[in-house]
Amino acid sequence: MTADTVAYHVADGIAWVRFNRPDKRNCMNPALNRRMMEVLDELEFRDDVGVLVLSGEGSAWSAGMDLKEYFRETEAKGLGAVRQSQRESYGWWRALRWYQKPTIAMVNGWCFGGGYGPLYACDLAIAAEEAKFALSEINWGILPGGGATKVVVDLMPLRDAMYHALTGELIDGRKAAEWRLVNEAVPLDQLQERVTQVARMLLEKNPAALKATKDAVRRVKEMTYDNAEDYLVRAQEAANFHDNTGRKEGIRQFIDEKSYKPGLGAYRR
Ligand code: ACO
């Protein structure tokens, strides 16, 4: 009975994937982690999917790891089971970080601890103003692991990251946007509309360029300027191998056909 832990459908180029344990506030148990990997694998190379949106059923985005099933019950089985369940959760977050398609976290409600892994894995994040975030690990006596400390240090100013990690205090979507944990926050009743608008903007772009760009942003963050310069030349040349006409067509429509202006929008594909 693992099939229901993740719900999804595809409409107009967007894969809407949802954590689907609303009665458990979408906390991540091993069954959900395994199922999410399968769903991501199934959607990644489908031609009818251009953008993936990750949200949660019910009042939560995700209440983090399942303290009973992911921690207590797995630990009771021994080290092998612990490492296995870590591999399953970290595995789908990693797959999502380097996903073929651009991804948007649509944070509709509670987002705690382990939830910061998939939150960071999504390329963009848009939250409801009413959503609530916390690194609640400190409240039950552990440090924010599973990458969560790295996530806040990567995304937030250090003072805010430290305060967030040490206090476990709840912040709402607006504060999460102010601290750069998410791109922006909008009222819950406008969340899906805003996410759809952003997804449509991405759907207009060249898919090879989107994949090259999202990877470049994550890669160059860790590089010196000179290494980044070199990587970016090579990344574009590698992208040309898979899409050798895109950029030429973009130039042609602007310079020869004069049918659009790259400063104002995407070329016609
Ligand atoms: N692990 C296991 N079970 C959970 C979790 C979780 N992370 N979150 C919620 N649940 C379960 C509850 O035990 C409860 O189960 P029950 O119906 O069998 O009693 C059910 O989900 C509903 O939860 P409630 O607490 O009744 O829901 P409420 O809406 O009142 O509160 C809230 C929501 C604030 C999210 C609360 O459930 C909570 O504090 N959850 C834990 C959040 C957390 O700290 N997660 C761990 C982060 S650290 C990490 O991920 C490594």
Helical percent range?
40-55%
Tell me the strand order in the biggest sheet. 1-2-3-5-7-10
Give me the count of strands.
10
> Total helix count?
11
The structural class is: alpha/beta
Major sheet: 6 strands, mixed
What form results from the Cα inertia axes? globular
Q: Ranges with pLDDT <50 over ≥5 residues?
A: none
Question: DSSP strand (E) fraction?
Answer: 15-25%
Distinct compounds present: acetyl coenzyme *A
Descriptive account of the structure:
The protein has 269 residues and is an alpha/beta fold. Helices cover 49% and strands 16% of the residues. The strands form 2 sheets. It has a 6-stranded mixed β-sheet with strand order 1-2-3-5-7-10, sandwiched between helices. The protein has a 4-stranded mixed β-sheet with strand order 4-6-8-9. Bound molecules: acetyl coenzyme *A. Acetyl coenzyme *A is lined by residues 24-25, 27, 63-68, 110, 112-114, 136-137, 146.
Tell me the layout of helices and strands.
Layout: E1 6-11, E2 14-19, H1 30-44, E3 51-56, E4 60-62, H2 67-77, H3 79-97, E5 103-107, E6 110-112, H4 116-121, E7 124-128, E8 132-134, H5 148-155, H6 158-167, E9 171-172, H7 173-178, E10 184-186, H8 188-203, H9 207-220, H10 225-242, H11 246-255
Parallel strand pairs: 2-3, 3-5, 4-6, 5-7, 6-8, 7-10
Antiparallel strand pairs: 1-2, 8-9
Helix pairs in contact: 1-3, 2-3, 5-6, 9-10
Bound molecules: acetyl coenzyme *A (ACO).
Characteristics:
269 residues, alpha/beta, six-stranded mixed β-sheet, four-stranded mixed β-sheet, 11 helices, 16% strand, globular, binds acetyl coenzyme *A
